[in-house]
Design a protein that fits this description.
Helices cover 15% and strands 51% of the residues. It is mainly beta.
Amino acid sequence: MKALLTSTVVVGLLLGASTSANATLAFWADVNGTIISCVDGAACDTNPNPDQLSIADQTVAGVSVQGNSTNSATAPPQNSLNTSSFQITNTNGTSVPITVIVGQTNYAGPITSFSASGGGTLQNAIGSNFDLSYFIDSANGQGALGGATPGTPVANSGLFTSTVNPETFSFNDPNNPFSVSTSLFSMTEEVTGSLTAGGILVGRTQAIVNEVAAVPEPASLTIFGSALLGMGWLARRRRKGGAANA
């Protein structure tokens, strides 16, 4: 299997050999102090399809990660960024901090709204906590290549803390107004929190979706403009005719 690179130095080499920072789907995480990263199409990506990034099951810094995948759609009529993990298990004897960031650039604009969602189920994890955040950047920046979240924070779940076992948390924020007039922009998702010793996070998901606003075709604009001119000419003619008959 293709191994996920787990040191800052090696990750830097991977990213240096990848495609442009403004044209890729990327994954970045800090798991208990160990930085891991992967980009679409790199050796660590087990999914050969474009805009689909999957990482092999493995244990990083005492945390087992299974079924981690990210995918995106960057063409009209809909833009989307989705990320999920089948199961994350903390095999350490203490609670560990976890941050995951995924990002995609070159989304099509313009847009006027978005919808965000996410969630998961915590097992044997009382005291664990997680927070989901979502970002849109009209400058088309890629934050996941370096652990950043560029752009405007557009949605946040608030901090969820597990108090019973098991416990499911979910977040849904539909149809929020947010405009991007530029033709290209990026979207980023972040989850931060901590997983208690022996805790398990099952079915982690996070998604952001927006519809591309319709842009009138040049021919339609020409017809519409001609109609306006014709209406204006007719109105002037009627005013002149009325004055002559007065």
